[in-house]
Amino acid sequence: MGVASAFAITSLPPAYATPSATAVISEVYGGGGNSGATLTRDFVELGNAGSAAYDLAGYSVQYLPGAPSASSLWQVTALSGSVAPGGRFLVAEAAGTGGSTALPTADATGSVAMSATSGTIALVSGTTALTCKTAADCAADGRIVDLVGYGSALVREGSGPATGASNTAAVARGAALGDTDDNAADLTAGTPSPVNSAGQTPGSGDGGGDGGGDPTTPGTVRVHDIQGTTRLSPLAGQTVSRVPGIVTGVRTTGSKGYWIQDPAADADSRTSEGVFVYTGSATPTVGVGDSVLVSGKVSEYYPSSTSQSVTELTAPTATVLSGGNALPAAVALSAADVPAAYIPTAGGGSIESLALEPAVYAQDFYESTEGMRVAFSDARVVGASDAYGELWVTVKPDENVTTRGGTLYSSYDQPGTGRLEVMSLDTTASFPSADVGDELSGTTTGPLDYSTYGGYNVQATQLGTLVDNGLKPEVTRRQKGDELAVATYNVENLDALDAQEKIDRLAHGVAVNLNSPDVVALEEIQDDNGATNDGTVTSEATLKRFTDAIRAAGGPRYQWRYIAPTDNQDGGEPGGNIRQVFLFNPKRVSFTDRAGGDAVTATSVVKTRQGAKLTASPGRIDPASDAWDNSRKPLVGEFVFHGETVFVIANHFTSKGGDQPLHGRYQPPSRSSETQRQAQAAEVNTFVKSLLAADRNAKTVVLGDLNDYEFSRTVTTLTDGKVLKPLITTLPAAERYTYVYDGNSQTLDHILTSPAVTHYDYDVVHINAEFADQASDHDPQVVRIDVSRCRRG
After folding, report:
1. Which end of the chain is more exposed for a tag (fewer CB within 10 A), N or C?
2. Which value, to the nearest 10 degrees, does the dihedral of the CA atoms of residues 583, 587, 588, 590 take?
3. Which helix (H) or strand (E) holds 375?
4. CA 629, CA 637: separation in Å to the nearest integer?
């Protein structure tokens, strides 16, 4: 009621120019597909009472809710073509789930879900959304050619809105299309009776195509009609006939099919001119450059439950008219073309029904070119080639650049708008092995597609030439005699059955690249027979092979400590029983063993005259807590270096599995996995506080794979009370990453230290994440602590 009073009309507005003798809104129906409806979709019908054709090029019909709020926006459907003298012009809008009868073939299509009972429709000279929200303001807008308010609409012409609209009733003018600029007088309710420009009525057309006629003549629907102005096709579920296009790419493996593109584009930047034709298990028989007419069902394919959809034509039949045709010009992808904002938001809901804004959002820009030929030149690689024949580039050379040529992910609202996945449609050529910082020189061209993993991608028919920029694995310096070097390394499901090559490479990383730290916290050490699910939980054989390999690579003879988990209770690969493990060099540092720690028993802190001590070492932090359900429990150990006690807590927090993707249809995406990681961070934070309560100068190192970013609530929770300092934040911004995912260089692995650790040298050692050939998907890191200097402060 507050909205209604805000827009209450106290006097009649001025007339909308002179009552029209030409183009008018002749019928409005918002009940399509609703309960009780016969027709499957909403529509707006235009009529022309004049003696000459009325050109609609550059025009639109626009919809506003009947009681607009401050946040309500006019929704726009662009028009083209013309209304013949005495003729009609049919604009199809959103479809519902009910009804049994399709509209006749529409002359224009939109995706606006109109209210059945109350709303306003405007015929507008232009395609820019109106901003008026009162009858008086709209009357003053000279772009409005005609306007119909129905039901209880506050924006209407004359004494009141047209009444009687419902799920089964439209409001319409009489046959003479009389227009006195008074909706209540000019339009009456009745059975919906849409007519298109060909004079067809419901049942005489198929609602989206043209099933009859010459098989070599294009039907009435074009690709841009199928794609529409939102992420969902306004023709979804309908059959279309003889859609013309040029074949721009053919996929003969996996999800087989081909892309067609209409070289005769419309004037609306939101509507793509390309679409994927899905042939299922059948290998396509068309070739690039063929001019075709395709008939099929318009479908929205969802690669996953949270992804966006791909608009496709399914169960297709095609007529090849000619071959060897020139391909439509490719859409350029560059820093000048792709917007700076990433994606619109919908309060966590779906953005699918939002009108695309390709000049504002990068993801809208890509969606508006879905299925079309695109091209970029001289692009930097930001995600290394993988085993599936994919790599990532950025078309924005200056966006969030890391020191080694990647794209930095430094906050939730800066995910790198220039990133695109690239894969090749040429199955006869070898895919390049590219590292981050390399370049795809020259031009890469192909249709723009969308998938679960990574979102928008270029299916390259022409792939640029790889230029190797010489990225090398880093080697950190060796610790000095009075420095305690503590490292963390996720070794990616290492077990005793792994190939020697994998073990040797990981061992080289410890002995050479990390330069043999004194203590190494390992994540993802599996039991002795890996994924074999037979109750084995020990890791002795795994660690024997690994430490032997480290020794062979020039490292020390490490000893180890760990606590074996209860079988299949710590998550990870079923049967693998991953856990954290401490390796330590006994010639440099000693481990304080205190019995009592096991998979289900918690270690705790006691205060002594010598400072804080653990009741069990190695031990676990509160393994009975719900925070650790189906997840790794932190491993705590007490070390002595140069007479000083140092507590090390090795972590592997729960994974990000189940989180919605950055590029998905729900925005902002839900990060549901973060809830458990916050609870885990709180447990570790509480434990560190107990150490500091027993000894405020307790030297503590918390490290491991936290599976979350330095700007996340997980890390904020872990550091609550300033009991820990995340060392990643001490590096220059362009160096803050340990992992590369979807072309984003990001931090998942961390080392944090307590306030007493005042003198240190910290380094992330980049040896894996940026390389096509990698021993693990994580980069290790190390902190070298000058314990003697920390002793005094």
Report:
1. N
2. 60
3. strand 373-383
4. 22
